[in-house]
Task: structure prediction
Amino acid sequence: MHMYDILSKKRTGLALSREEITFFVEGFTKGEIPDYQAAALLMAICIRGMDEEETTALTLAMAHSGEMADLSGIPGIKADKHSTGGVGDKTTLIVAPLAAACGVVVAKMSGRGLGYTGGTIDKLESIPGFSTNQTPERFAQIASETGVCVVGQSGNLVPADKKLYALRDVTATVESIPLIASSIMSKKLAAGCDCIVLDVKTGSGAFMKTPEEAQKLAETMVKIGQMAGRKTAALITSMDCPLGTAVGNALEVEEACRVLHGEGPEDLRVLSIELAAAMVWLAGKALNLEEARKLAAEKLRDGSALEKFKQMVAAEGGDPHVVDCPELLPKSPYRQVLKSSCAGWVQSIDTQAVGRASVVLGAGRETRESPLDYGAGIRFFHRTGEKVEPGEALAELFSQRKEALAESLAILKTAVKIGAEKVGKTPLIYAMIPENNA
Ligand code: URA
Result:
């Protein structure tokens, strides 16, 4: 088999065979196929696309390019949850203990934030003492004993994706549904769970700017999961304004704890229940989605999810008192308020710009090596569609670096649009795939 023939076949729009795709992924991972040929294939895929069989073959070849996590030593049905990336998206902190409280085992690997999107691992590490770096044995022990454990990625999982993603990043080939779907799903398959729930974001802060594009990505990923023998479902949800009110690591932990205490913002609570319900339903812990939703709402209301979260924090070395006493979380000393200059309605919030403003404050990373300021971030007082008066506070910014406040404030000013026209709120959840079978 020759890479030249594979390239010319995809260039002319023909479908590649499983053998050709595997030849490429294995050869590229081993360093036998050079970057220039891999880049040419990525561009051809971007332009010509891939059908379902090709995309599944690509995903499976990538998943098998390194270690495959073996969770068979952990009793119970294991379910994973993945978000395609957002700003203020702290749902894993709520959904993981909530699903566990419903009897699903959540043994999950999560990522760090990069650029304008945050990462669950950074949020958890803002809890004093918390270590996301557990040995595979300890990970299995915590998941078996408490039903929930979230750690950073360990081992040599999906090396093909690491190499391919780095190449896509510099060859303008990130925005391709088969490439995004295979990148995400290869990691989910290698992570070893029986059930996978995907939260596919759409809007100003998402890869997929329209619900239609998000739907296409979601359908592709659900199909791949099913073809690979995993129970898979996806929700298509809004990233047209930050989820909840807090953006920034410790601020988000505090907000997640408020939801676990039965308080907190409505959108975050509703989405967390929906995602947990989907995991419960896929794992067969309820007869249908409606029953799963009721169970999740009840386990949130009666404090079982809160208790699970405390157990997980303690098991991973963190101080469980932060769950009841958020003042124990890191705080950044400098603050500034963004005020509305006029009366009107919040027309829109550019979520990507909010993410950039939070990076300037120290809440996110510009490069993989950037240090984090756990207390830094933004707390919003208004959402899209709400009425504001002149001089009213729209948001409060926090940082350890006083000089970062002005730069971040300038970005945020352009991100929040106030206008005279009354606007409606955008839906939080657009669709579920497969369609709700309740
Ligand atoms: N997230 C991933 O892991 N891969 C992509 O290609 C896009 C988003």
Remarks:
- Residues 339 and 393 are 4 Å apart (CA to CA).
- The pocket of uracil is lined by residues 84, 174, 179-180, 183-184 (CB under 6 Å).
- Residues 211-227 form the longest helix (17 residues).
- The mean pLDDT is 94.
